[in-house]
Amino acid sequence: MLKTLFLLLSVLSLAFSKELIATTYPVYYPLKYIVGERHRVELLIKSQADPHEYELTPKDIKKLAEANLVFSLGVENWEKYLLTELPKGKLVFLNQGIDLIKYGNFPDPHVWLSPKRYMMVVKNINSALIKWEPNERVHYESRYNSYMQKLKELDRKYQETLKNCEHRIIITTHRAWDYLAKDYNLKTVSLTGVHAEEEPKPSQIKLIIQTIRREGIKYIFAEIGQDEKVANFIANQTGAKVLFLNSSLFPQEPSDNYFSIMERNLRSLKEGLQCHPRK
Q1: Beta strand 106-107 with 102-103: parallel, antiparallel or unpaired?
Q2: Which residue among 14, 146, 147, 165 has its CA within the 20 to 30 Å range from the CA of 234?
Q3: Residue ranges making up the domain that contains 183
Q4: Which pLDDT score is estimated for 6?
Q5: What is the pLDDT of residue 16?
Q6: Is 222 helix (H, G, I), strand (E, B) or coil?
Q7: Strands 219-223 vs 40-43: parallel, antiparallel or unpaired
Q8: What is the pTM (predicted TM-score) of this model?
Q9: What is the CATH number of the domain that holds 19?
Q10: How many whole angstroms separate alpha carbon 182 and alpha carbon 176?
């Protein structure tokens, strides 16, 4: 009898739950965490495709239009296109209150790679959920506070780990780490711009080789899921070793989440920048 009642309640819960969609994983994970089991949360980009170059399909538009809410950072061109495709009030952009770095007219979307900067994204998610469903405020606030506690601890780890490093220049194949560099007192030199698919210029390759030799840098950082050919060429020219960072935060393991991926990124940064605790 109890088992039957439990199954009935589960079915009713699903029947009354709503569907929320996050466009990218850095938005999906905190949204899923804060919502918990209240509603269904889906991820739009479910592969390690470059989110900067993503092309919306008619099937995507249909799926997004059928959702109750769509959460997006709102800085990519294809994300802005959704404003013309989705009904008013359905799309939630999460870049409010964030000091975005811009290159010309193009904002850098990679705010999630700085735990400090990412806090505002999570705050905006929580605020949007409460505005949409004020009767669930207690639930959302509780889950949000739990997430923020974890995020503040991650920020503390980044501050402690990155404050005493032999090198403070991140040599990377993809210009994704400027927020992290700005927030944790580092510098970046990158092969390409914010779009990882760009072809590196010979002059930029030369500059990076010169920087590595001048600064005595021992490691360069390549992106998981991206072509390593140029990184390996630079490593061969300079004697530096290649380490890997995950800028899209797309999970590599079934148990992965934002925090486990960012912890791995921190371990790579610690090794590559040769960071040591103060004695």
Answers
A1: antiparallel
A2: 165
A3: 162-273
A4: 42
A5: 56
A6: strand
A7: unpaired
A8: 0.90
A9: 3.40.50.1980
A10: 12
Question: pLDDT digits over 204-259, tens only?
Answer: 999 999 999 999 999 999 998 888 899 999 999 999 999 999 999 989 899 999 99
Q: Report the phi/psi class of residue 28: left, alpha or beta, with left for phi > 0 and alpha for psi in -120 to 50.
A: alpha
Asked whether residue 109 is domain-assigned, the answer is: yes
Which parts of the chain have pLDDT scores under 50? 2, 4-15
Contact present, 240 and 234 (Cβ < 8 Å)? yes
Helix axes 229-238, 202-215, angle to 10 degrees: 40
Taking phi first (over 0 means left), then psi (-120 to 50 degrees means alpha), and beta for anything else, what does residue 160 get?
alpha
Distance CA(214)–CA(233), nearest Å, equals 18
Q: Which two tokens stand for residue 149?
A: 């506690």
Asked whether 234 and 208 are in contact (CB, 8 A), the reply is yes
For residue 12, what pLDDT is reported?
42
Task: Give the chain's domain count.
Answer: 2
pLDDT at 193: 65
How far apart (Å, rounded) are the C-alpha atoms in residues 228 and 242? Answer: 9
Q: Which amino acid is at 122?
A: V
Give burial (CB, 10 Å; 0-12/13-18/19+) of 106. Answer: middle
